[in-house]
């Protein structure tokens, strides 16, 4: 059935002209947008479909409609380990070492339920496409567990097959108990790509190869993963240049800056995006801009772990592709995509002054920026031929009171609200602020129980 959205106070298109249409309307046919314009200009054929009851109509009076937000970095299993006391006040390496053993008790059900929970939170905060970087597979857990959860939730998903292979005994950071054998990692990566990866336009599921970080895998695994990814035409993702200790590790172990290391391994290009890059140097930024290598900027996590301020202004000025990521729920305990856009704006201003980022640029990074980091040209904007992914915010919410002067900027400047409507792949997944694809209270109840179990197991049974 045709989906017709009418009467949006403003429809933000993020199209080539960055049009913001007052009294906006949009028509979706199946998974794609077919027409965008002012409600007054809605072609007569669509009006007839409405009159004859052949269209699903969404009246968005009082709402601002924007393209669905794109989250480029997450570790959804971490929603089970938020606000863990031992990890509240540490920087990256200390934070990781206090959590690794807790995570070693994860089970397949925990992956499934935490992914559903994290996706619910994202969907209600305006996100329609997300990546998830899963790099621990204890107790029979598989990436298939997150993929099944994404399919149940109805979310567009880039499932990143993470991995760790260099344990503490080999000079890596993670304990040996949570690392995998490299041959097994590559075999499983190939299986996942062959089983699930969809290269088509409007794909709901893509697979990404994603060894965790320079300090937890070998050079060989990085190189082999890049070769495998290129053989199948899938993207590559990892953590890079996150903080000063990360840089020191790279210089000490490899004698290279993180950007030089990435280049040496073949980890640059349009099909690669790196998380954080807080400490990417000028040469690294120039390399990324030249090669179309993307960055997932995670402002909340960078603040939480005191990693620093990523030079996003400088990156954007020279043409680096920058998307936004909420990062894992243990280093950003509030995974709100619109909130992340707000923090991106605020943090750039702390670092580089009030003109460093506007509200509209923050929204652009959260939509088009994310799409380009994920190497997609079918999401992030609302125009004919683009995927029908859009969300609506109710401007009568108390958080937006008095901000009618510029409702689009209000989305970023005001208290981040929840969506009242979300459409993904042409399907309504949130209506009147309620998730339709899953019974959220039941998922959350199970999530609470599993979070308790995980914590108790690690305290009593753990290493
Ligand atoms: Zn991360």
Could you characterize what this model shows?
The protein is an alpha/beta fold and 463 residues long. It contains 15 helices and 17 strands. Strands 1, 2, 3, 4, 5, 14, 15, 16 and 17 form a nine-stranded mixed β-sheet that branches. The protein binds zinc ion.
Question: What characteristic shape results from the CA principal axes?
Answer: globular
Which consecutive residue ranges, at least 5 long each, have pLDDT under 50? none
Number of strands: 17
CA radius of gyration is 21 Å
Task: Give the count of helical stretches.
Answer: 15
Span of the ends, CA to CA = 55 Å
Regarding quaternary structure, how should these chains be classified? Answer: single chain
Strand content: 15-25%
Structural class: alpha/beta
Mean pLDDT: 96
Q: Which ligands, by name, code or SMILES, are bound?
A: zinc ion
Level of helix content? 25-40%
Biggest sheet character: 9 strands, mixed
In short:
The chain is of the alpha/beta class and 463 residues long.
Q: What are the salient characteristics of this protein?
A:
alpha/beta, 9-stranded mixed β-sheet, 21% strand, binds zinc ion, 8-stranded parallel β-sheet, single chain
List the helices and strands and how they pair.
Elements: E1 2-12, E2 20-29, E3 32-38, H1 44-51, E4 55-59, E5 63-67, E6 69-71, H2 92-103, H3 108-124, E7 127-134, H4 143-153, E8 156-163, H5 182-196, E9 205-211, H6 219-232, E10 235-240, H7 244-254, H8 258-265, E11 272-276, H9 282-291, E12 294-297, H10 299-304, H11 312-317, E13 321-324, H12 337-352, H13 359-373, E14 390-394, H14 407-413, E15 421-424, E16 427-431, E17 434-435, H15 440-460
Helix pairs in contact: 3-4, 3-15, 5-6, 8-9, 12-13, 13-14
The chain binds zinc ion (ZN).
Zinc ion binds at residues 73, 75, 239, 275, 327-328.
